[in-house]
Amino acid sequence: MALSGIFARRSGDQAGGPRASVVGDAQRLALLDQFEESELGWFWATDVDGKLSYLSASAAHRLGLEPDQMIGTALTSLFLPDESEDEDRGERPFAFQLRARSSIADMPVRIAVDGPERWWSICAKPQLDAKGDFLGYRGSAKDITAVRDSQRDAARLSQYDSLTGLANRHRMSKRLTATLIAYKAAKRSCALMMLDLDRFKQVNDTLGHPAGDELLKQVAQRLERIIGPKGEIGRLGGDEFQVMLPDIDDRGRLGEIANSVIQMVSQPYSLDGSRAIIGTSVGIAIAPYDGLETDELVSSADLALYAAKGGGRGQYRFFSSELKDGARLRRQVEEDLRDAIQTDQLELHYQPIVRTSDHTVTALEALVRWNHPERGWISPAEFIPVAEETNLINALGEWVLKRACKDAVAWPHSLRVAVNVSAIQFSGTDVPTIVRNALGKTGLEPERLELEITESVFLGDPQGTAVMLKALKKLGVRLALDDFGTGYSSLGYLSSAPLDKIKIDRSFVAGLTEDENNNAAIITAIVSLARALKMETVAEGVEAMDELQLITKLGASHIQGYIFSKALSQSDLLERFAEGGLKFDPEGPAKHRADRRSTYRRVGVIHEDHRYEVVMRNLSRSGAGIEGLLDVPLGTPLVLDLGGGQLVVSTVVRSEGFSQGLEFEQKLIKDGAEGLCTRHRISPYALAAAGMPLAALPPGSYVPQVRDEGPKSRPQFMQVDLAQTYRAA
Fold first, then answer.
1. 672-686, pLDDT tens digit by residue?
2. Tens-place pLDDT, residues 86-137
3. H-type helices in 311-456, by residue range?
4. 7 in a domain, yes or no?
5. CA-closest candidate to residue 652, choices 634, 631, 629
6. 3-class SS of residue 560
7. What's the distance, CA 28 to chain centroid?
8. Rounded to whole angstroms, how far apart are CA atoms 544 and 587?
9. Are 139 and 282 found together in one domain?
10. Does residue 167 share a domain with residue 109?
């Protein structure tokens, strides 16, 4: 039916009297036709069954059809559901309102045609006869595709980072909140990784902000390749990123993902002809164990990230409740360290580096020690990261260098002193001037000073590093590459840097003699490479005789470790030289065994339905030594409660009086620091089901309470009070 017929008849119906003048009708219809042809809008009409009885010709042409082909087509078949709407709505809004015969105003609908997505805005009013019976719809439509695209772009900008295309802080917070709410109801877990880039500022400063932006894009692409569909990645701003990983609470798997992220991000970047290398640190928290709400979980992941950066960067850390106390302690350490440097509370100890062929010491590494007047000895692992983060590392490093040179003057003339130089010192101070002054004031010959640097000094500004190394070599000092293999190991800088020695990190020595261990092949490759480059090699951390024998066989030129000596004070060292000369005899266990850390802390042991308090003497991945239960038979199954929801199923494999050795059913994993942890923990949901309030896991012991109040077994073992023997940590 023609538009003129529809609207002409309708006009007469409304007038209810003599027909309007032919000229007036003609003008009105001409205006309507002109409006349609302009494509500013179209008209349509349906019959009582919802089938088209009219559609503007220009609208039909927009759909790639002729008007006659459209007549009789169901109106709803022209449109698709709006996928951006709530899932339970689908196409119901438009179809439902048509069935309800409601008036429709400016309703967006998506056109069901091939090609680019198009959107119309629909207005319609039901038509009724004199009796009130429904006749069909008459309405209008207009194309709103451009408006819709603009709205979609604006919505995307509010949800995504414009530089990398990753989710932004707002979207990540919203998604994490929604996920945690849903997962709390479903009793599911969700891991959160926080990471920021190490040395990113150096890239911006040396190569410019456009290069920094390009680097961030490439980082985002690498993260997407690693994470893939397992999770969602966001850029929170600057060089901060966040990764949400639903349904993962296995800390072993999360550690593997974090390691992959660290390794991938640390590979070199090509930025408009320049080459840059950065790193990253990762903090990990897991809901519901480390937090049930968004703010709580993010705070936990932030604390873990802070600990990872404090541990030397390029590392990952899991959140533990002790980190909250650790943050407060670090602030106190910073204040006390400033005083310690000024008041000479620090001292140096020296660990021998021994020639493999004849066990003669050739150099000694200076290791800083801090005897706090109130806290006693504080580990370097605790105060060195604080010094690096607070710029105290420059003052500390200068003090160590001067004292080491002064002490070395008193040694036999053939011995060198090795001093560590941190990457922050290397990039932030004039190291050659400081070295020149230290040598000049102490009178130590330059060739007797060996500076140990890590691979991280080559990251960020390779050109500046090369200039610095050449300046140091010009002074006549020796250069050693420390912890080789743990960072970005590149043949490029090995072949170009003027290095004299490579130190093979202790992580390659540990477990060297175990079956199915590939470290021997790695050490062989490093030794061969160093020999080809005319460099010495030092194997660090050698402690057992079987390790010494294998390291010697593999060809390392020097060895450093407890097998020869721990670090000695200056006075003890001079006494040792006077009595025993420069040769050190190896002393240690015959065979390497899994590293057992002396802990001396109270833990719980569960047997049947009884819990005992014992002292844990040592801990390794595969077992532990405990004291406190008397005469426990071999083969007794026990559950070791390490606290924080960590329960370890164990078997007694050694028992002597009140001392037992436990073998774990499942090995512990590294916690990203120097410690060990279980892969899984007791879920707060299980604790809540047992009667405890639902909350993140605070420190302490967790044994689900059984509601069944039936008869319990009698305790099988006598508990020995060792409080007077050991002080629990």
1. 877 899 999 998 888
2. 434 444 467 777 888 888 888 888 887 776 788 888 898 999 988 889 999 9
3. 322-343, 380-389, 393-408, 423-428, 431-442
4. no
5. 634
6. strand
7. 69
8. 8
9. no
10. no
* 170 contact partners, CB below 8 Å, separation of at least 6: 158, 159
Give the structural domain span for 414: 326-580
Stated length of the chain? 729
145/167 same-domain check: no
Q: In sequence order, what are the beta bridge partners of 625?
A: 618, 661
Among 216-220, 305-309, 360-364, 537-541, which stretch is predicted with the lowest mean pLDDT? 305-309
End-to-end CA distance of the chain: 92
pLDDT score at 500: 94
- Three-state secondary-structure class, residue 584: coil
Summarize pLDDT for 620-652 with one digit per residue, the tens: 999 999 999 998 999 999 999 998 889 999 999
No. of helices (H) and no. of strands (E), the chain: 23, 33
Tell whether the model's pLDDT for residue 15 goes beyond 80: no
Rounded CA separation 348/573 (Å): 11
Instruction: Based on the fold, state whether residues 515 and 620 are members of the same structural domain.
Output: no
Is residue 9 a part of any domain in this protein? no
Count Cβ atoms within 10 A of the Cβ of residue 611 and give its class: 0-12 exposed, 13-18 middle, 19 or more buried: middle
* Overall domain count for the chain: 4
Distance CA 209, CA 267 (A): 20
Would you say residue 293 lies in a domain? yes
**314 and 197, same domain (yes or no):** yes
- Both 543 and 420 in one domain: the answer is yes
142 shares a domain with 189: no
